[in-house]
Amino acid sequence: MKKLLLLLLVAPFIANAQDEDSIFIKKLSDEILRNGKAYNLLRQLTKQVGGRLAGSPQMVQAEQWGLKTMKEQGAELAYLQECMVPHWVRGTGDKVLVSTIDGKIATKQLDACALGNSLGCSKTIIADIIAVADFDELEKRKDEVKGKIVYYNAGFNPTNIRPFKSYGESGIYRRNGASRAAKYGAVGIMIRSLTESTDNNPHTGSMVYNDSFPKIPAVSLGFQDADYVWQLSRKSSVKVSLLTHGQMLSDTIGHNVIGEIKGSEFPDEYITIGGHLDSWDLAEGAHDDGTGVVQTMEVSRAFKALGYKPKHSIRFVLFANEENGTRGAEKYAEVAKEKKEKHIFALESDAGGFTPRSFGLTMSNAQMEKMQPWLKLLKPYGTEDLLAGGGGADIGFLNKAFNTPLAGLEPDGQRYFDVHHARNDVFENVNKRELLLGAVNMAGLVYLVDKYGL
Amino acid sequence: MKKLLLLLLVAPFIANAQDEDSIFIKKLSDEILRNGKAYNLLRQLTKQVGGRLAGSPQMVQAEQWGLKTMKEQGAELAYLQECMVPHWVRGTGDKVLVSTIDGKIATKQLDACALGNSLGCSKTIIADIIAVADFDELEKRKDEVKGKIVYYNAGFNPTNIRPFKSYGESGIYRRNGASRAAKYGAVGIMIRSLTESTDNNPHTGSMVYNDSFPKIPAVSLGFQDADYVWQLSRKSSVKVSLLTHGQMLSDTIGHNVIGEIKGSEFPDEYITIGGHLDSWDLAEGAHDDGTGVVQTMEVSRAFKALGYKPKHSIRFVLFANEENGTRGAEKYAEVAKEKKEKHIFALESDAGGFTPRSFGLTMSNAQMEKMQPWLKLLKPYGTEDLLAGGGGADIGFLNKAFNTPLAGLEPDGQRYFDVHHARNDVFENVNKRELLLGAVNMAGLVYLVDKYGL
């Protein structure tokens, strides 16, 4: 009865607050959809800078662009935060040829690319291939592996509704496939690209060597060429000629780009919003993660344009090195810890600039429950769920350091792996409205966290 | 208390049934995502047939393709249903040039296309333009209109979250703009294309003349050229040279393509699923509505592949003439009425082959309430809402004739008007998984309606 009475007393205030919030989020939406700069900024980043792997001259350009743009988009303060980053270079002249051992089928050059962090070979490797469906088959046939190039045919499971689930399941072949094969004496590996796209663009991405085994070259094949190699290997003995030039140079200097708006009530409590500025070298890094970068700055711009003064300090962070080291994120959390900062929330956009559908959350049940009533405020803009699980590779370090609650923007994922880490991750494959709607939902969520805490 | 008791008794059965349904819908999903033919069928329709306006030779080809494919995709019976259709032809050599009256700015050819059903001019019309924001401005300036070409600048409202809402608001300029201007003596009109796309492709679509006024030519401008004309008209007097060749020939014969699976329990009660086979002439009609066509046949294929025997008879209908007359749909409902058929439900897919998000419903509140518990069965596949309002232009005739409850597939709409009725509505702009997921949700909904009725 007491509870009911309390509810009756409090209800009008809740309703009022919700109206106020709903009005303000509509203002944010109108501002972003009408005057948003994110699309044009993305054009600058992708077309004027282009691919920008940590350590590359393009990444230095990107940092300067980020610093300048961060100030223009409404941050009161913008600066670079230095960190050491890995420095992998692809080199030039990579080539993968396939032929049957009996010579009956003409040699074909495959559309392939070296996996990120993989090391090249001093000269062309020519070896028979052993084509396996997965690690289980590799283990069963381990005695056949010595001196061969292993081809892993493990593709996405098409029955998964969320392609990210498939990426989670098949990603292990890219990351660990080389060392698992090298353990049995393989001299190189090829994987099926982590995609369901029907084109033939090969997809790169991070791999790691296990120091216990030889560091053999590793490449990824386009979808059609993967089919070709797999089918050829079903009926013939196949050999491959493989030449790659990857090199891991000494660590070098990189920077996070950080913008800040000071909190009016809790200046020492931080909300972080971010995406990563680096990208793989072979594309423009539009969806991965140019879109997260420009959405982050769009939130800053919209707050400024509406004269919104946040209670908490807000940091807009363009992380230096998500793709092959997360060293930028590590540094950001490390410095925050040294300075004994209080980090109350972090939000990341690193799943493409597609129509927003949900936020994935890493936080306590109590915090998640607190967020649920906000769902109806965000639903008109596309957010249909606030679900457990998610966040982001970069903001993950804040959670480890401070137990900071995390949210990751989860846009519709069906097209993401068509372009992810491939040469077609270009500006032209980003839709302006989808991109801006992501920023609308991000701005709305940050506003609510800033206003009500977690 | 009685109700509670009943609930306690019934609950386990409900739970059981939901499990069974959930298992079967998962099977449908797996079948479609693993073995779906829709994408390859769409490639055939768009690349082998191409644009296929009612009355065109391509539409005859499309009907033959549809009939053959309908049988191959699992219909027990497939046939053509004759109807008369309008026969508009664009002709060739359309040209729109713009220049300033003072000759200070060089003449520019605009990327323009005649609106569907509009009539050409016997010779080039050269006239000053009067550029207006909307009908309100036209009315205010009606005395200036005589002898001029009216340019309507009414574009989409970017703050609408759903582009279909914007289309609803601005579509009236395409449909009625010509006669509203002709009333005041205009000699031609130009409109801003109904799109928010940043490219310059002009978008066609149906217009209608009011017989009380002269039938003047009407064209649509690409987005960039619309901006150009509008801005030019703000600072200079502008004239336009306009030549179009549209002709409305005598009505001709067209056909709906109909496939059927006979119901095992209620063979005389029909569920209709459909999309429209016709498209505008200047594109491949991929999203509009090749995707609806192939999704419709995918549902048929998946039912057959899983050995599903529906209780009700199911009709898979490829409508003959959605774009400029809806005569196929009219005929379908007319024949059904003559035969005193019972139509218990109809589902249409005509909003693009994008990731499914909801179904829009036209039915009684009681029917809508009956559907709500199904939401959790469809949610894993993308359907987040079952909302009032929606259906489709073709199945609308069944609702008028029989009060048949309707559902329309509502995919994510952000990209639809980038390609709608424009030359870039091509196969390459359809994503395979998004297309198949639409079919999954359609199949699931039809299965539930078939099993439980409405």
Descriptive account of the structure:
Helices cover 39% and strands 24% of the residues of chain A. Chain A has 454 residues and is α/β, with parallel strands linked by helices. Chain A has two domains: 23-85 and 251-452, Zn peptidases (Aminopeptidase, 3-Layer(aba) Sandwich), CATH 3.40.630.10; 93-248, Glucose Oxidase, domain 1 (3-Layer(bba) Sandwich). In chain A, 55% of the residues are buried. The A-B interface holds A 29-30, 33-34, 39, 158-159, 161, 163, 196, 198, 355, 380-382, 384, 412, 414-415, 418, 431-434, 437 and B 29-30, 33-34, 39, 158-159, 161, 163, 196, 198, 355, 380-382, 384, 412, 414-415, 418, 431-434, 437.
Cα-atom radius of gyration of chain A: 24 Å
Helix content of chain A: 25-40%
CATH class of the largest domain in chain A: Alpha Beta
User: How many domain regions of chain A?
Assistant: 2
The number of helical elements of chain A comes to 13
Helix/sheet category of chain A: alpha/beta
Helix/strand order of chain A, N-terminal first: HHHEEEEEHEHEEHEEEHEHEEHHEHEHH
Short description:
Chain A is α/β, with parallel strands linked by helices and 454 residues long. The first copy, chain A, is 39% helix and 24% strand.
Topology of helices and strands:
Two copies of one chain form a homodimer.
Chain A: H1 2-35, H2 38-49, H3 57-72, E1 77-89, E2 95-100, E3 108-109, E4 112-114, E5 125-132, H4 135-140, E6 149-152, H5 163-182, E7 188-192, E8 218-221, H6 223-235, E9 238-243, E10 247-261, E11 266-276, H7 286-305, E12 312-319, H8 327-338, E13 342-348, E14 356-362, H9 365-371, H10 375-378, E15 385-388, H11 396-402, E16 406-411, H12 416-419, H13 432-452
Parallel strand pairs in A: 5-6, 6-7, 7-8, 11-12, 11-13, 13-16, 14-15
Antiparallel strand pairs in A: 1-10, 2-3, 2-9, 4-8, 5-9, 10-12, 14-16
Helix pairs in contact in A: 1-13, 2-7, 7-13, 8-11
